[in-house]
Write a structure and sequence with these properties.
By secondary structure, the protein is of the alpha+beta class. It has four helices and ten strands, in the order H-H-E-E-E-E-E-E-H-E-E-E-H-E. The protein starts with a helix and ends in an 11-residue tail after the last strand.
Length: about 190
């Protein structure tokens, strides 16, 4: 009889642990739906500042450029998931993406869609910071405008790669490199 009570107790404890772990995994690991997060955003409302480091506001991308990495700094330390909402002037639904990092690089297919929908027209990129624990409240926002040019670069670029601060580069010019390559290549251009 004593063994059956111990087994029953161990089984109950194990079941409670499994159920608790399952609830925590579902609550903290499942991604919130982008459309639900997007519905929380209100133009003109006051939120903490989110600074988009790259691309800069009003960046004009050439049509053949590789996907950029969007990077931002969030002033609200409680933000740990972000919604990127890209609104286009074509009247179609915005592109919404949820990410766990303060950077995002579009997949090639996404980038092609962004370039097509922003060709010679502005697209508004809004990044919204949210806490995974409370996904019903926006903590921070930042926004920029981007567009894609119809005119290609059409030739490789020849440029100089210099260490910063510039005073250090002048002191030791051996670290200055000249590179030559196309903006359409995902590989770093070779040193020439």
């Amino acid at each position: 009889m004593r063994k059956s009570v111990i087994y029953l107790l161990m089984g109950t404890v194990t079941l409670v642990a499994i159920v608790t772990a399952g609830i925590l995994v579902v609550r903290y690991k499942s991604e919130p739906e982008p459309e639900n997060l997007s519905a929380l955003y209100r133009d003109g409302a006051k939120y903490d500042t989110l600074t988009i480091r790259y691309p800069l506001d009003e960046t004009l991308f050439p049509p053949e450029i590789i996907p950029p990495t969007f990077e931002w700094e969030d002033s609200n330390s409680k933000s740990n998931i972000w919604l990127l909402s890209i609104k286009f002037q074509d009247g179609k639904a915005p592109m919404n993406i949820v990410t766990n990092e303060s950077m995002w690089t579009p997949r090639q297919q996404q980038w092609e869609a962004i370039k097509k929908r922003s060709l010679e027209r502005e697209a508004e990129v809004i990044i919204v910071g949210i806490s995974r624990r409370i996904t019903t409240k926006i903590l921070s926002t930042g926004q920029i405008l981007i567009r894609t040019s119809k005119d290609p670069v059409g030739a490789p670029l020849f440029y100089r790669e210099v260490n910063l601060p510039f005073i250090d580069a002048v002191k030791d010019p051996s670290h200055i490199r000249w590179r030559f390559g196309a903006v359409s290549s995902p590989e770093q251009p070779p040193v020439v």
